[in-house]
Request: fold
Amino acid sequence: MAGRGKLIAVIGDEDTCTGFLLGGIGELNKNRKPNFLVVEKDTSITEIEETFKSFLARNDIGIILINQFIAEMIRHAIDGHMQSIPAVLEIPSKEHPYDASKDSILRRAKGMFSAEDFR
Amino acid sequence: MGVSELAESSVLLDEKLLRFMDQLELLEEKRATLNSLIEQGWFSMSKARYSMGNKCVSPLQYASEIEPLVCVHAKTLGSGEVDFCTDRVKQKCCNEVGKDNGSIEDIGPQEEGVRRRIKPKKDMTEKETSEETSSEKAPEVTPEVRKSDQNPQQDPLKWFGILVPQSLKHAQSSFKQVIELSAEIATLQTAVLNTRQELKHSMKDKHILLEEASATQLDRVAD
Reply:
């Protein structure tokens, strides 16, 4: 069943996490570790970064969905991730609409037309 | 030699660039769909919250045991691209549940239908007939009894109650679509990055060829 494939992880605000869990992506493994993090007002950046890194280190996660405003907080960690698995997807949040110019993938793609590529 | 190679690499570069642009366009389209679907999901969730109560749709309602209903299969293609495809676990239908229950050891009274109370020994013949009837009835009743015994944790909708508003169901279906779309977007993102890498290499190759061609031209002029 689902164990054979990889999971989708979420780091987001309350509504984003609730929505995706309604969709059926949630998991609590044997060690009671969830594949989601509900970011609230009092959630520290260190906690977000640690969770993101732990998701990157897990073999059973294929895609990480993260609200763009949270991704902005740990941009260095996201930019540092170069592997294709897990894929990191930036999604909008209720209060912060999606901005393509901030997306790390699109920024990488845009960088193709810089002067460095012609050297 | 140099001119034909240069023309070939230029054509190849153009093809790659066009492919790259197409992929970016597709990515933008899918992104727009994803954003609108997420918005729709939030709107439906807010409607559900309005009718159920503010605290009734929150992380407090998450189940203590959560199992994933969707998984992603990541296939690495030869070109270095990764193809993500979602696979949804189908909810068990009634027949399957009946079969499963048959294999599990049943604890407790076997017959949950109509039972006859054991009376003191007044008439032996009457008792015998009652036993016969109950033993005949038992196998008929058991498969139907467990129909409602489906795992309640399987559907996350049930975390929020048994009779949830329609808007919450709409929110669920929106987010289900978002999950499928996010796998497609993840595939596209890797494709975009891969094409970008290819394009970068082709540009470098073309640059080298251009330098070589200009050097030979200079030599000819000098001769």
